[in-house]
Amino acid sequence: MQYDLSDEEQRLSDDVADFADRVVAPAAYEYDTQRRLPMEIIAQMGDMGLFGLPFPKEVGGQGKSYFQLCLAVEALGRVDQSIGVTLEAGVGLGVMPIYRHGTAEQQAEYLPDLVSGRALAGFGLTEAGAGSDAGATATTADLVGDQWVINGSKQFITNSGTPITRFVTITAVTGQRVGARGELKPELSTIIVPNDTPGFTVEPSYDKVGWHTSDTHPLTLRDVRVPASNLLGERGRGYANFLRTLNEGRVAFAALATGAAQGCLEEALRYANERRVFGVSIGSNQHIAFKIARMQARVHQARLAWHDAARKLDAGKPFTLEASIAKMVCGEAAMDNARDATQIFGGYGFMNENAVARHYRDSKILEIGEGTTEVQLMIITRELGIGAEQLVPTP
């Protein structure tokens, strides 16, 4: 297991951290209150090549590793989780399915704009009754002639309604298949739906607890017709394809959470040294000092967890277990550090202009998105071979 960064990796991390401090952090409160994704910042991230980091140069990418993408996500999440998740989802849920499963024609049409950051895409999996239980997907796609006719709805879809969102890849039931015991099960496939398709409606954005700058919408599809060639990957392989997408996404999500935990630590440490009560810094209070020490320990543990998962991913080794451990450990570290940092700041920590207040609101979703903590525990127990397959039905 390699824990040290190479010189190239360190330069990337430093460059993105510098950009985060100079450009993202000063604007974070303004855009958070406006609940608007700052497209000028997204454009700068595109110019830096961040959306193309893990893709080969032949398709317009930077030819770097998934690990390096995670370094960038962590550096951004340290100051603004909304910007960090825009990159994480833009790459993992927007570009990666096209790169991994798209035809040559689909890749030629979409990849140049996606890897350059000129366009974004979403991934429509979650529904009112389906998410982790993908077998409960109610959205249907019927092949009528040379067109898919799609009906259904999706919820909580990131990057689905930005000014540069080009399409959403949706999961839909395209038929039935015979299961291992001879029973009929839904056949899930993934289909590209351009945002300007008639009948495809991006509903008003959510009023969220946090991630106010991140673009998140429910989607409605009523008799949406797209060409049969918009099928992404093999028909009936949608479930297997999105499992890979989710596993990879959990690693980057863990890096985002680690950035949040690091940001809370830095803010708490600065304030503990600056804030003076009765003539001494509050950091000289052992209770405060110990709280910050625990925050540092959580960051260290979280970073090692996602590094381990990302290195295995890049090496082509199995990483499902490590991804779930990292996602759980890092999400909890972010939430715990946000809570402790807010407590250290006292009344100032309750003011929305304070970075730790934003992290406090934002961090809860890190224990929910990309699979809740409970789902991660089920995956971990299943990977350990102790019967958790009974708790996670496989369609």
From TrEMBL:
<dbReference type="InterPro" id="IPR046373">
    <property type="entry name" value="Acyl-CoA_Oxase/DH_mid-dom_sf"/>
</dbReference>
<protein>
    <submittedName>
        <fullName>Acyl-CoA dehydrogenase</fullName>
    </submittedName>
</protein>
<dbReference type="GO" id="GO:0050660">
    <property type="term" value="F:flavin adenine dinucleotide binding"/>
</dbReference>
<keyword id="KW-0274">FAD</keyword>
<keyword id="KW-0285">Flavoprotein</keyword>
<dbReference type="InterPro" id="IPR009075">
    <property type="entry name" value="AcylCo_DH/oxidase_C"/>
</dbReference>
<dbReference type="InterPro" id="IPR037069">
    <property type="entry name" value="AcylCoA_DH/ox_N_sf"/>
</dbReference>
<comment type="similarity">
    <text>Belongs to the acyl-CoA dehydrogenase family.</text>
</comment>
<dbReference type="InterPro" id="IPR006091">
    <property type="entry name" value="Acyl-CoA_Oxase/DH_mid-dom"/>
</dbReference>
<feature type="domain" description="Acyl-CoA dehydrogenase/oxidase N-terminal">
    <location>
        <begin position="6"/>
        <end position="117"/>
    </location>
</feature>
<feature type="domain" description="Acyl-CoA dehydrogenase/oxidase C-terminal">
    <location>
        <begin position="236"/>
        <end position="384"/>
    </location>
</feature>
<keyword id="KW-0560">Oxidoreductase</keyword>
<dbReference type="InterPro" id="IPR013786">
    <property type="entry name" value="AcylCoA_DH/ox_N"/>
</dbReference>
<dbReference type="InterPro" id="IPR006089">
    <property type="entry name" value="Acyl-CoA_DH_CS"/>
</dbReference>
<feature type="domain" description="Acyl-CoA oxidase/dehydrogenase middle">
    <location>
        <begin position="123"/>
        <end position="224"/>
    </location>
</feature>
<dbReference type="Pfam" id="PF02770">
    <property type="entry name" value="Acyl-CoA_dh_M"/>
</dbReference>
<dbReference type="InterPro" id="IPR036250">
    <property type="entry name" value="AcylCo_DH-like_C"/>
</dbReference>
<dbReference type="Pfam" id="PF02771">
    <property type="entry name" value="Acyl-CoA_dh_N"/>
</dbReference>
<dbReference type="InterPro" id="IPR009100">
    <property type="entry name" value="AcylCoA_DH/oxidase_NM_dom_sf"/>
</dbReference>
<dbReference type="Pfam" id="PF00441">
    <property type="entry name" value="Acyl-CoA_dh_1"/>
</dbReference>
<dbReference type="GO" id="GO:0003995">
    <property type="term" value="F:acyl-CoA dehydrogenase activity"/>
</dbReference>
